[in-house]
Amino acid sequence: MGTFKIEGGHQLKGSIQPQGAKNEALQILCAVLLTPEVVTIHNIPNIIDVNKLMALLEHLGVKINKLGKGSYTFQADAVNLSYLESDQFKIDGRGLRGSIMIVGPLLARFGKGFIPKPGGDKIGRRRLDTHFEGLINLGAKFRYSKEEQFYGVEAKKLKGTYMLLEEASVTGTANILMAAVLAEGKTTIYNAACEPYLQQLCKMLNRMGAKISGVGSNLLEIEGVDSLGGTEHTMLPDMIEIGSWIGLAAMTKSELTITNVSWHDLGLIPETFRKLGITVEKSGDDIYIPAHTNGYEIQSFIDGSILNISDAPWPGFTPDLLSIILVVATQARGSVLIHQKMFESRLFFVDKLIDMGAKIILCDPHRATVIGHDFKSTLKATTMTSPDIRAGVSLLIAALSAKGTSSIQNIEQIDRGYENIDERLRAIGAKIERVD
C-alpha cells in the first residue's frame, strides 16, 4: 500500500482547477451502453474508480478510444453479454459500487442485466433495494443468489409505470431512468434524486433521443423511445473536490483560486463554508479564497444557539463534504454540531483528529461536536490510515495544517476519487511525497 508523507504548517498559494466529477462520470459512462452509436465524453477524471469502470466496459466489448486528456469516444455496438456470467465479471463488478448502474442500460437494451454485490467505501450499509424495486416496477423479473451474492434482472420488454421511490437515491434514480428511456410507454419517477450530476445524465440522454421532462425536480416523466443515438457530452467539475480545496485554503491560511467551478451547480456549498466564517468570493466562474491570517469564526443560529450542519438529499448539503467541514471546524473560533444523517460510520475517522489534538466529542455514530482551537493550538503530526475517499482527504487537509511530518497510509482510497492529488498540491506549495 502507498503512503503520503506530509510536512505540515506551510501556507499554499496559487490556483487549482477541479477535475471532472467522479459521481457524474460513473453514471455517464454506464449510459454509453444504451446505444450502438458513438458517444464522445470530455473531462473524464483519471482516477481509480473511473478507470475500473472503463476497464469493465471494455471487457463487455465497448470500444474505447482516447482523443486527448480526459476525452474519449465509446461505442457499444458489439456488447459481449456472456461476460456478465463469467467468473472474471464477478471479480471486476465487486470492486466498484458504481458498477451497479450498468444493470439498467443492459436490461433496457438487451433484456437482462447482472451484477455481483458491489463494494466501495466502508461507510455503512447502502441498500440496493431502490435500484431493483424500480426495475421490477418496470416489469423485470428479479433473482438473487445468496451463496454467490449475485443479482440478476430479466425482461423481454420493459413497460412504463408510475413509481414513488422509498429514498431519493442518486444511483438508484440513474439506474431506473436509464432503463425507462427504452421502456414501452410513460414512466413517472416521484421522489427522484435531482443532483446536478443526475441532471447532466438527463440532458445527455435527451440529446441521444430520450424524452425526459422534469429535469432538476424530484418528479421525472419519461416517454419511452425505441432507440437512442450517439452524442457528445462534457462533464461538470467535481463539487466535492471544490469543497475540499475551500477547506484546504482555510485550514492552511492560504490564498487560493479555484478555477472553472460551475457556480450555478454548487448549491449550498459556498454558503455552508461561509457559516464557518470562511470568505468565499465569486470571481467570474472562479472561487477566490483569501488568506485567513486572523482565522475564521463560526456563526450561531439567530437565537444564539450552536450551529448545526447536517447533510440532506440535493438541494441540501452533500454528505460527501461533511468530513471536510468537520476538519475545518477544528481550527475555527466557536463550536458546531456536525450531524451525518444519510450514512453510517462516516464520522469514525475523528479519532485520528483527536489524536492530533482536535477537540471533538463523538456523540454517537451520526453526530460530533467540534470545539475550535482558533489556531491557538495547532494540530500535531501523526501516522494515520485512510478509511475511505472523503475521510482520507479530510485527514490529508488536517496533516497539511499540522505541525510536523505526518504519514497517511492506504492512499489508494484517496486515489479512487482524486486525480494526481499529490502533484497538484505540490504545484501550489504543499510539502507532500508519495512513498511506495
Layout: helices, strands, pairs:
Blueprint: E1 3-7, E2 13-16, H1 22-31, E3 38-42, H2 48-59, E4 63-68, E5 71-75, H3 87-94, H4 103-110, E6 112-116, H5 129-137, E7 141-145, E8 150-154, E9 162-164, H6 170-180, E10 186-190, H7 196-207, E11 211-213, E12 219-223, E13 231-234, H8 239-251, E14 255-258, H9 269-275, E15 281-283, E16 286-289, E17 307-310, H10 322-329, E18 335-339, H11 350-355, E19 359-364, E20 367-371, E21 383-385, H12 389-401, E22 405-409, H13 412-415, H14 421-426, E23 431-435
Parallel strand pairs: 2-14, 3-13, 9-10, 17-18, 21-22
Antiparallel strand pairs: 1-22, 1-23, 3-5, 4-5, 6-8, 7-8, 10-12, 11-12, 14-16, 15-16, 18-20, 19-20
Helix pairs in contact: 1-2, 1-7, 4-6, 5-6, 6-7, 8-10, 8-12, 10-12
Task: Walk me through the structure.
- Its EC number is 2.5.1.7.
- It is found in: Cytoplasm.
- It contains 14 helices and 23 strands.
- Helix content is 29%, strand content 24%.
- Strands 21-22-1-23 form a four-stranded mixed β-sheet. A four-stranded mixed β-sheet has the order 2-14-16-15, covered by helices on one side.
- It has two domains: 216 residues, Enolpyruvate transferase domain (UDP-n-acetylglucosamine1-carboxyvinyl-transferase, Chain); 213 residues, UDP-n-acetylglucosamine1-carboxyvinyl-transferase, Chain, CATH 3.65.10.
- The chain is of the alpha+beta class and 436 residues long.
